[in-house]
Amino acid sequence: KIEVKNEIWDDDEVDECSVAAFESRARPEYEILHKQKVGANDVYLGLDYEKDPSSSSCEEMLIRVSLPKEHSSTDISLDVLPEQIDLRSPNYRLLLPLPKRVYTNRGSAKWEKDTKRMLITLVVDRTGQVTKLMK
């Protein structure tokens, strides 16, 4: 039995980023903030040799996405992949490659109704990072 399709490519052959290039919805403004948990021992004594002030030591990422044309979070869809996020709404589409790998099941998202922003907190996957050693 031969299966005939009218599709040129299979779904796994199409790059999601190339599809987003033809998107008619606007790309919202966003900012990425790196967060790390720092205590007094880290700041004053420098006891944790694996932490430094750079973004390479961050434990979480906070992504603030401004969606001024949206009125509620019910129409907003968010998919988190290890290396990108895909946010969709009736007026906006954001396919954003992430600067670091993240856990797909440990984050959270919060809609700020008064500022019309989506706050996305993602936990950085540091399993593949090389730790610094003391000299």
Structural description of this entry:
The protein has 135 residues and is mainly β. 8% of the residues lie in helices and 30% in strands. The chain is built from two helices and seven strands. The strands form two sheets. A four-stranded antiparallel beta sheet has the order 1-2-7-6, with no helix packed on it. Strands 3-4-5 form a three-stranded antiparallel beta sheet. The longest helix has 6 residues, at 40-45. The protein is flat, with a radius of gyration of 19 Å. The model has no long low-confidence stretch (mean pLDDT 80).
Q: State the major sheet.
A: 4 strands, antiparallel
**Low-confidence residue ranges:** none
Radius of gyration: 19 Å
Q: What percentage of the residues does DSSP assign to strands (E)?
A: 25-35%
Question: How many β-strand stretches?
Answer: 7
**Assembly type of the shown chains?**
single chain
**Estimated structural class:** mainly beta
Physical arrangement of strands within the biggest beta sheet? 1-2-7-6
Number of helices: 2
Average pLDDT, rounded to a whole number, is 80
H-E order: HEHEEEEEE
The span between the termini is 67 Å
Helix content: under 10%
Note the overall shape. flat
